[in-house]
Amino acid sequence: MIRINEHYLKLQASYLFSDIARRISAFQKNNPDRDIIKLGIGDVTRALPPACIEAFHAAVDEMRVENTFKGYGPEQGYAFLREAIAEYDFRKRGADISADEIFVSDGAKCDTGNIQEIFATDISIAIPDPVYPVYLDTNVMAGRTGVFKDGRYENIVYLDGTAENGFIPDLPAEPVDLIYLCFPNNPTGAVAGKEVLAKWVEYARKNKALILFDAAYEAFIRDEEIPHSIYEIDGAKEVAIEFRSYSKTAGFTGTRCAYTVVPKTCTAYTSGGERHFLHSLWNRRHSTKFNGVSYPVQKAAAAIYGEEGRDQVKALIEYYMENAGLIRKEMIDLGYSCVGGIHSPYIWINGKTDSWEFFDHLLNEAGVVCTPGAGFGKCGEGYIRISAFNSHENVRMAMDRIRKTI
Ligand code: MLT
Question: Ligand 1, from 15, 18, 41: best to mutate by most atoms within 8 Å of Cβ?
Answer without folding.
Answer: 41
